[in-house]
Amino acid sequence: MHRRTYLRPLDEDGVLFETVDQAMDRVVGHQRWLWETQLQRALNEAELDELSELRALMEAKRVSASGRVKWMGGTALVRERAAGAFNCSFSVAYTPADLVDIFWLLLNGCGVGFKPVTGLLSGFPSSIKTVTVVPSTRTDRGGQEHSSEHIDMAAGTWRIVFGDSAKGWAKAIGMLFGEKPRVSELVLDFSELRPGGKRLRGYGWISSGWEPLAKAMAAIAAIMQAAAHRTLTKGELIDVINWLGTVLSSRRSAQICLIETEATTWEELLAELGWYVDFKTDRWERGQGQREQSNNSIGFMKKPTAEVIEQLLRRILPTGEPGFVNVEHARRRAPEMEGLNPCAEILLSNKGFCNLMQTVWHRFNGDLKGLMRAQYLAGRANYRQTCVSMRDGVLQLQWNDMQKLLRLCGVSPTGAVAWEGIESPEMLEAVRDAAISGADSMADDFGTPRARRVTQVQPAGTSSKALGLEGDEVHEGAHLSLSRWIFNWVNFPGNDPMLENFRAAGYDLKQNPNDPTGMLVCWPVEYPASAKFTEVVTEDGQHLEVNQEPAVSQLERYRLLMNHYVQHNCSITVSFDEAEIPAMVDWFMEHWDEYVGVSFLKRNNPLATAEELGFKYLPQECVSRERYEAYVARLSPIDIDADKSAELLEVEDCSTGACPVR
Questions:
Q1: Per-residue b/e over 600-609, b at no fewer than 16 CB within 10 Å?
Q2: The pLDDT value given to residue 607
Q3: Minimal CA–CA distance to 484: which of 493, 471, 494, 495?
Q4: Closest listed residue to residue 143, CA positions, set 174, 168, 178
Q5: Which residue has the higher pLDDT, 75 or 465?
């Protein structure tokens, strides 16, 4: 998982990749560059010793930079486009420049939260009757990098030529939504663009080519034709931004949409936002698959009634959406807050950024002093990541202003449920204060503003797997894993050369029933023991330890972390079933003023088969200790150095499907 997700190609053809040590050199080198750039001098011996200490913690998988930094940190690209190394951002979507910013950030791999604001962005003139797409016929390199537009009033045409670069693509969307000429034909010209499958210079990932962009732009143009001579609705703005998220390269887009309301009753909410409550229902059947790109949440400005919470939970049970956010409490924590990042752990201003660090708490069991030191160093490293300019030639200047003013950090635990102090307010506050002290000390060294907020809890889906050690896997974020022992079925491309290596080493493989081009490989995973697991002995004497933690218990852990560790928000996915809804409603009514937002997922019986649950297969299959040990005993080692593929692995365990991998 670490190899495929975070080790960069060293050549343009993508056949030679970094070693783990080389990737660590790059990430730690990024920290050194940030530090020396801010100080305007070389680091002294004590400062170099601190970097060595940080590196040792990273190599021991006790501390980790964010996935964005592990992928982009230390590259030449992020020295001129700092957003490429950031996890989180938020913007209102009100002007053409806002759409340019959102598209630019998505193209740079940054997760984007957004709030659609109506009144300015509008459809086409009614005179535009025809939209023509000019395809690319290039078989190798692209052409001109800059986008351009050409208006021929005599011929009645408006041509937008898309440049072969991220800047070109982003700025073209500004042309589309800017001043619109009264002509009869819009020509979307993609003839300058390279084909798919080419590695993008600087970014390192694989280009998806011009076809997804052309499909998205044609769909956006159709939305604008339908909105002729009027402003776009909030729903149309969401669709536009969702379409922008479909054009990316070999990684997932990450978006969240937040719409605020003063409604407090179910009737008021349906009258105002009934369309939004059901916005993603049956999206595939209705041909609206682009809506999968964003997590959608309702932002309550006032405490809703118990009926509202109950009705939303009943709607969430089959679909997972819409989520609901207590904006009133979020603004008590962060007065400038306008929205959230896609996984909802960071409270962001309009045009706000955040970057993250992780500490693997349970690996410090019995060593609180060591954990506090790790938190302190993570806070200092996290603050250094804020010391960049966001002036990159595309983003509006407000982004740089907010970055300099807020300096948002995000030091998160992972593996928290296996940490000895997870239920101790005093220990939680001690490790919180250590992270804040670290960030503050770095700001004081630089003579720059202290970070407005430092601590949070992130989901850590992919990163927790990459932090695993043999016999010591990592529970994700603040979650308890589905079971102590799991068979994780991981999707590989059917022609992946590593499949034969896995087969020869004794791993089980099977065709992916949801992807005819994919092959599933069974990875055995053992998580740390937890008192919260329920022990089950089957009729044939098999021993399982499964997660049947009640929803209210999960919410109580969220509340504990919020009150004693978190300054932003704790991103946690609460699993529940229908019978638990009344108790959950009571919890929300009692603790609304301590809540910002969580994700929800329907709880399935961990002992049921895929067929019993109505699925073709289970990405995570609960197994007994005996079955796990028997499977592991027959496996031979795998030579990871033999892996020359750049394809990302698909582990279908993100509750939203929209969290960024890199």
A1: beebbebeee
A2: 83
A3: 471
A4: 168
A5: 75
Give the pLDDT band of residue 196 (cuts 50, 70, 90). Answer: confident
Amino acid at the residue 505: A
Angle separating helix axes 166-177 and 96-107, nearest 10 degrees? 160
What the block records as the tokens of 590 is 């009692």
User: What's the burial of 154, exposed, middle or buried (CB within 10 Å: 0-12/13-18/19+)?
Assistant: exposed
Q: Is the dihedral of CA 452, 454, 459, 462 positive or negative?
A: positive
Report residue 272 CA to chain centroid gap: 29
The structure tokens listed for 161 are: 């030529």
- The two tokens of residue 232 are 């776009």
Distance CA 495, CA 185 (A): 43
Peptide bond into 606 cis (omega under 30): no
pLDDT in tens, 257-277: 999 999 999 999 999 999 999
173, 247 Cβ separation under 8 angstroms: no
Q: Which two tokens stand for residue 415?
A: 């593996």
Provide the edge-to-edge strand list for the sheet that holds 185-189: 130-134, 185-189, 157-161, 148-152
Do β-strands 88-93 and 111-116 pair in parallel, antiparallel, or remain unpaired? parallel
CA distances 393 to 161, 167, 389, Å, are: 20, 9, 11
